[in-house]
Amino acid sequence: MKISASFLGSSNIPLTLTKLNITDVDYIHVDVMDGKYVLNKTFTFSQFKEIPLYTRKRLDIHLMVLNPLKLIDDYANLNVEFISVHLNILDDIDEVIKKCHDYGIKIGLAVNPSDDVRIVYPYLDKIDLVLLMSVNPGLPGQEFIKTTLTKINTLKDEIKRRKLETLISVDGGINFSNHKLLKDVDIIVSGSTIIKSSDYQEAITKLRQ
Ligand code: DX5
Ligand code: ZN
Predict the structure, then answer these.
(1) What are the structural domain ranges in the chain?
(2) What is the pTM of this model?
């Protein structure tokens, strides 16, 4: 299982990224919020473009925005492995998928806690990853929503039935008391549990167990 570290709750992003860079974490999860799709707003690309100054890790970009299309050209310049967008947005999902693939970037679609996981089925054979939200998008440090576990099983069965290789990533509220329930997923996204700990590597190693 791979770990993607979110720095959304960090009060010193350069320091957090520098500390994550010397761990064995697989990806840096970059939460991007536009103040429209979700109420909160994060830094814009003009600030996030500095991320590679602090880390050589591949980036896992999570766009919580209504119009991701115009951002993809920017983020594609960074060291990006995945770009994930939400389903209930203003841009056309097929266009977003095509644009990411044209850049050679893997595309993920995010499913919110209130969504039926089957909303992603029409896209399943065209995407690389499903980002299952286990908290409502918008804030770090929220409680893990347990109904996500049923969604993981349902989605895994569907991916297997169709003989696809779509990855499953789970995002939000993951800590040392629930991470073992996520053994079967490909990637877990963890923010607070890692960056609020005194030893990032120790927290990451524990999340992998
Ligand atoms: C929520 C974000 C998550 C979140 C993860 O909107 O998408 O990536 O920051 O942080 P924790 O692990 O603190 O829930
Ligand atoms: Zn996220």
Answers:
(1) 2-208
(2) 0.98
